[in-house]
Amino acid sequence: MQAEVRIERYADQGRCVAHIDGRVVFVRFALPGELVRIELDEPHDRDERFWTGEVVEVVQASDDRVEPAWALAGPLAMGGGVGGADLVHVSLPGQLTWKAVTISEQMKRLGHVDVTVPISRADGDEELGGLHWRTRIEMIADDNGKPSMRRRGTHVRVPLTTMPLATNALLDVAAANGIWDGGFEPGAQIRLSVPEPRQAVGESDYSDIGSNYAVLVDGELQAGTRQLTERVTVAGREFSYMVDANGFWQVHRQAPIALANHVIDLVRGEMDGAVSAVLWDLYSGSGLFTLPLATMIAERTRMFSVEGGDVAVKSQQRNLRALGLNDVDVRCGDVSRTLAHVPAHLAHPDVVVLDPPRAGAHAKVCRQIAEAGARSIVYIACDCTSLARDTATITGLGYELADIHAYDIYPMTHHVETVALFRRA
């Protein structure tokens, strides 16, 4: 079923809102103010409170609409549908507006905080047109053994001959290892991880990378090395991290630098030159924030670090040992359960840094942080809806939102990273 609708406003998950006979319709590949023809998703006669659909024709276009830079990720009706870039039809300035407005609306609706959210684009993204930012990609081999992505709403696998969101360094690795030529077992999971060669000047190429990359097939190393080296400069100091090729790391080539520097600036401001500090780093991964927090905040710093993934914890412990850092108590386990058994000398943090998964920290962890007496909380969020929900909890526990800033480290997608500072009122 098709219908012509006027798009009203931004919604979640890269969609916009329209109405058909009073019923809410969430529309993919639309922009506010546009008049578009849409195809409703099947079954279109269902009785849910809302319907979903996708643009098949633009009758009146927004000034923010552009031709998709990666056609395969665009609308189905225009030959796309593979996903991975749901704002590919939006100009780069329009993407910033979309994300800033969405965060502000969620913070007001769910967090009960009225705030304008500044947003920054990562260095180099404008010059690259919002492409070539992913240092990790995953694909599945199709029936012919070629790397592919599934076309939305079907079982069709679309073979890929490149990945426009991947960094130039990753594309060099893919070409050198014949990834696009195929030869994989049908259904095989293919993952490429290529740390950005930051020491190189100008355009990177395969020679800059050496063996610091990984090609994994069904989790098994096929080329490169399992333990990758990531280098991040924070406040003028370079930190080196060993990260498992199949583990989590910020995927944008500049994200670790932007986020770590912002977090350290906030925590330094909260500590205000104190000579000693007790810090918590929750959902700490391989230690992106842990290492600079342990070395750059106070003359004497004691830390409590909690991460649920054992592979990431092993990486973090290895990274701490390499720097000779012995005052970081690293725990592997569920954050809430672990916080119920914090050693006495670490039980009352000055500042808590947390970077939870997309679902957020949830009320229990927020309450545990408040009960521990933390005077400041730095919350790094990859989902603004979860951040807004947790904001309502945190402010209800006696904190106020003191600072908020967003980073567009997921160009061409609706995702955005937000860093919020809460201070005890």
Mean pLDDT: 95
Q: What is the molecular shape?
A: globular
Strand content: 25-35%
Number of strands: 22
Radius of gyration from the CA trace?
23 Å
Helix content: 10-25%
Alpha-beta classification:
alpha/beta
Low-pLDDT residue intervals, each spanning 5 or more residues: 200-204
Main pleated sheet: 8 strands, mixed
Span between termini: 53 Å
Q: Helical region count?
A: 9
Q: Largest sheet, order of strands side by side? A: 7-21-22-20-19-16-17-18
Describe the structure.
- The N and C termini lie far apart (53 Å).
- Helices cover 23% and strands 31% of the residues.
- Helix 1 (92-109) packs parallel to helix 9 and helix 8 packs across helix 9.
- The model is unreliable at 200-204 (pLDDT under 50).
- It has an eight-stranded mixed β-sheet, with helices on both faces. The chain has a six-stranded mixed β-sheet with strand order 1-5-6-4-3-2.
- It is α/β, with parallel strands linked by helices and 425 residues long.
